[in-house]
């Protein structure tokens, strides 16, 4: 009997006992009206389906989720936070839930949130316990909501409970498990601020995070993720941050950080167990991350960690928003845990120069604590670097601009058209979406300065509009609009914001996203492709978003037709990130872009002022309306005046 079991194990199961935890109940946390959101239930479904169809889950021990007990959660979070998350999904919170969520930073809540949060935390505990006991060699917990941003008293960044921090404390507190030193590796593209704070003074936990930082402008947009943040008191030296200065980092950059920081330190620290905050939003194709780690890259990073803690490794999912990217990355990691085949693949040759610089400053900062970091990195290595990256990104805008100018100052201006289509991710990532969307026409309806055709053409052709200091990147597809027509819609035009970099003092045009019968707005409709529309969206909402995937694809189009409007999370800082559907014209959808309803509230309350436009800006609109044959000059002037003076 026993012989039979052993035989069947060696054929269908791996020699390694690898745990995998998936539970559909964690899908019950979603946006209240199922509005699109990058952190959605399909993320974990996609990973699970992929692992099943690749035959991975069949070779693993499949576990289901367990809710965490409050006493474990309370080792990381305050009582009031735990009470809130426990009760937030109950009926008595129905009327307050959305308001509470809106006061938090990047959080939504629904009737399924409490259960999912407890299951996510409990699941990481469950797999970590089994690995610690030796029942499993290693494990992957496919959990959501993610956890690493959640702080002692605060849910943020799509995270409710800090799953990895909770499991870490669990392991350390269960003395009989014999786990006294834990290495947490956080390779999510965002800084693990919550985890860092939890173990700030704790030398039993070495927290290592590599993340986009951009000098404090990348989410969570503060200095917590800086390399100078090394821990405090007995924890000094036990917190290591590797902050990227830019996006586009890929396998070579991550591997260099592993080879020259993490691996030597891990050797010296000699952990009893490793927990990985395994977000896959640094993966190539991720809409939020803008980095380009391949599945092979993730496999290598994980492979190198398997040599420590006798292979006792737990991966817990954090972020990652491209379903294909996260599924393939997770699959590559599972193959490493199962250890059944050699990791194969190749990596682009060299890290960026900025990567070597960051590695050097991190080593410098920490060498007093880790003698293995004391030597200089050989100049021979450092001289091997990728050519200075040129950004295709953006470039300038017109009615709008990003809030943080710093973000922009990093940009090297270069027209899109000079990029080859098939360059690797470091420059233009996967651009196959472009050919898909280049055959689909939409009407781009504009109510602002783009009504003046010469002005709008700069968004297509690129270049500098007369009298404006700024350069537009243009669209990669430079064909002019196929048709132009004008229509009147029952929407409210208004002018807001005190000043903009493009137009100086004075408000710029916005459309109330909701229609009302007493209002009218003149709109100029340009028939362009969905690809061009994406480039227009990008120019209207300057951000570090890198266009490796579209901002607005066919799914978004279906969704906006059904829902009326959709907010583009990736360019949330832009003022025109809300795409509104205005109906069909000759079987072609009409789309415009404006602020969202929460901005409208801020305009109404005066938090952001309503403001008449500058003369230059108003003149551009008048020219648009007059040259477009819509109104006489006099009528155009009074149309704008009315929109600029009527209260919202
Ligand atoms: N301008 C994780 O990956 N983005 N969280 C907000 C505001 C929030 C990411 C953008 C990103 C949170 C787990
Ligand atoms: Zn993330």
UniProtKB/TrEMBL annotation:
Domain Histone deacetylase: 37-336
InterPro entries tied to this protein: HDACs, His_deacetylse_dom, His_deacetylse_dom_sf, Ureohydrolase_dom_sf
Assigned keywords, A-Z: Chromatin regulator, Repressor
Cofactor(s) the protein needs: Zn(2+)
Domain of life: Eukaryota
Transmembrane regions listed in the UniProt entry: none
Protein name (database record): Histone deacetylase 5-like isoform X5
Source organism (scientific name): Rhodamnia argentea
Lineage of producing organism: Eukaryota, Viridiplantae, Streptophyta, Embryophyta, Tracheophyta
């Amino acid at each position: 009997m026993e012989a039979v079991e052993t035989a069947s194990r060696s054929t269908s199961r791996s020699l390694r006992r690898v745990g995998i935890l998936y539970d559909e109940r964690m899908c019950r946390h979603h946006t209240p009206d199922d509005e699109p959101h990058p952190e959605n239930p399909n993320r974990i479904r996609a990973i699970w389906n992929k692992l099943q169809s690749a035959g991975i889950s069949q070779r693993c021990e499949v576990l289901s989720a367990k809710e965490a007990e409050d006493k474990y959660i309370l080792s990381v979070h305050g009582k009031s936070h735990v009470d809130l998350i426990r009760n937030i999904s109950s009926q008595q919170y129905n009327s307050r839930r959305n308001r509470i969520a809106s006061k938090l930073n990047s959080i939504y809540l629904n009737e399924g949130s409490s259960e999912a949060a407890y299951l996510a935390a409990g699941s990481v505990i469950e797999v970590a316990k089994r690995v610690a006991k030796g029942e499993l060699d290693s494990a992957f917990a496919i959990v959501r909501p993610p956890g690493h941003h959640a702080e002692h008293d605060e849910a943020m960044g799509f995270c409710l409970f800090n799953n990895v921090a909770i499991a870490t404390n669990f392991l350390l507190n269960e003395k009989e498990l014999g786990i006294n030193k834990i290495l947490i590796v956080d390779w999510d593209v965002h800084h693990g601020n919550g985890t860092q704070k939890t173990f700030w003074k704790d030398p039993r936990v070495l927290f290592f995070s590599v993340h986009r930082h951009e000098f404090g402008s990348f989410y969570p947009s503060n200095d917590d993720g800086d390399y100078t943040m090394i821990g405090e008191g007995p924890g000094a030296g036990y917190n290591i941050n590797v902050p990227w200065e830019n996006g586009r980092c890929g396998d070579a950059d991550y591997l260099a950080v592993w080879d020259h920081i993490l691996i030597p330190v891990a050797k010296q620290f000699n952990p009893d167990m490793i927990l990985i905050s395994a977000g896959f939003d640094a993966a190539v194709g991720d809409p939020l991350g803008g980095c380009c780690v391949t599945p092979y890259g993730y496999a290598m990073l994980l492979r190198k960690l398997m040599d420590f803690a006798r292979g006792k490794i737990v991966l817990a999912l954090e972020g990652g928003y491209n379903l294909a990217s996260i599924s393939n990355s997770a699959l590559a990691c599972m193959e490493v845990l199962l250890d059944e085949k050699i990791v194969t693949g190749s990596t682009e040759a060299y890290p960026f120069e900025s990567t070597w610089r960051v590695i050097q400053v991190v080593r410098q900062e920490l060498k007093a604590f880790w003698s293995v970091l004391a030597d200089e990195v050989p100049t021979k290595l450092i001289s091997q670097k990728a050519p200075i990256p040129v950004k295709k990104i953006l470039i300038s805008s017109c009615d709008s601009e990003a809030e943080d100018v710093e973000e922009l100052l990093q940009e090297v201006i270069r027209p899109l058209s000079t990029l080859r289509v098939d360059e690797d991710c470091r420059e233009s990532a996967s651009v196959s979406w472009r050919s898909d969307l280049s055959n689909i026409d939409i009407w781009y309806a504009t109510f602002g300065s783009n009504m003046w055709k010469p002005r709008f053409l700069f968004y297509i052709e690129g270049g500098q509009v007369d009298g404006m200091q700024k350069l537009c990147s243009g669209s990669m597809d430079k064909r002019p609009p196929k048709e132009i027509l004008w229509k009147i819609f029952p929407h409210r035009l208004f002018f807001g914001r005190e000043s903009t970099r493009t137009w100086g003092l004075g408000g710029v045009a916005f459309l109330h996203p909701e229609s009302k019968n007493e209002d009218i707005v003149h709109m100029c409709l340009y028939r362009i492709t969905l690809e061009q529309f994406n480039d227009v969206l990008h120019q209207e909402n300057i951000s570090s978003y890198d266009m490796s995937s579209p901002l607005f694809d066919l799914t978004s189009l279906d969704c906006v037709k059904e829902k009326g409007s959709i907010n583009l999370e990736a360019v949330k800082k832009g003022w025109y990130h809300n795409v509104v559907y205005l109906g069909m014209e000759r079987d072609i959808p009409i789309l415009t872009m404006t602020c969202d309803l929460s901005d409208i509230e801020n305009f109404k309350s005066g938090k952001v002022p309503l403001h008449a436009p500058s003369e230059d800006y108003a003149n551009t609109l008048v020219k648009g309306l007059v040259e477009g044959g819509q109104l006489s000059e006099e009528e155009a002037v009074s149309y704008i005046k009315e929109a600029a003076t009527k209260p919202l």
